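Weekly modeling sync, notes
Attendees: S.R. (lead), two postdocs, one rotation student

Agenda item 3: backlog of single-chain predictions. S.R. asked that every request posted to the team notebook include the full sequence so nobody has to chase files. The rotation student volunteered to paste the first one in as an example of the format we agreed on. Action items at the bottom.

Example entry:
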Amino acid sequence: MSAYILRRLAQMAPLIVGISIVVFALIQAAPGGPEAALLSSGRFVDPSVVEAYRVKLGVDQPVPVQYLRWAMTVLTGDLGVSYATMRPVTEMIAERLPATLELTASAFLVAAILAAILGLASALRPHSWTDLLSTGGSFVGIAMPVFWLGLILQLVLGVELGWLPVSGTHTVGASTLGDHLAHLILPALVLASRYVASWSQYFRSSLIGVLESDYIRMARAQGLSESRVLFVHTLPNAMAPMISVMALGLADLASGAVITETVFAWPGIGRLFVQAMFARDYPVLMGVLLMGAVTVIAFNLVADVLYGVLDPRIRYE
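Predicted structure, as returned to the notebook:
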């Protein structure tokens, strides 16, 4: 396993470099840049100031030179300076990271619990009304756009019924834990909705496959109680593939948070990315995209390792 992990880590480096080159080239080919960011911020209008700023940032150089300069600074942990705010990109991401981690962790917990309950209920009674309703609801959840569900919940639960706040992280003048948790409920539910739908179906299929296996029939023939068969012999084996799927879902949750954070004005990295996109603030875009690529690749490795640890039949040579 150690050799496999080291080999995968070695493979990650050229993959990340390749992704960074493609993303950097695409961003440089898009219209905008320091001029657009500065002019949109309303802070500079003098062309000489803009040109001096271009020279200072080095964006007057050829694209390959710009990439090499950016890559060398990234290796030192410096993601550059924002065109719009003139602040270090690393500092801006670090400020937004806790909010994104909080939302992602909350959505992951909600999705895991609800998916386990729905998947278990469906697997224990396949083709029943419970199974049909759960499966139908899953298809609806997978097909439903996240932004649309967020707007509907804001309208119904926030505006019409007034049960929950619709945006932000706290009410002005209130900084209690209860108020913060109330603001977290809607975005966490919306972000978790799609994963509840898909994970519950994965869990249902995994459980049914284990329940129909020969060793489960043997356990029942030996007179073991249904609870022991379920919790000792079935769930541990059914959870092995599910954990790898959920590990991959963690990286996907972060990308899904872009829309959720925008709809609910949640001050995380997803909202920072959208703001930078509209401001054409390319260093911020590159920083967020690079972090996202590293996260996805890392969680792919985590998923593979967990699957090998939980399933003794899997061996990585």
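Discussion: group reviewed the output briefly. Residues 226-263 form the longest helix (38 residues).
Action items: rotation student to repeat for the remaining queue; S.R. to check formatting next week.
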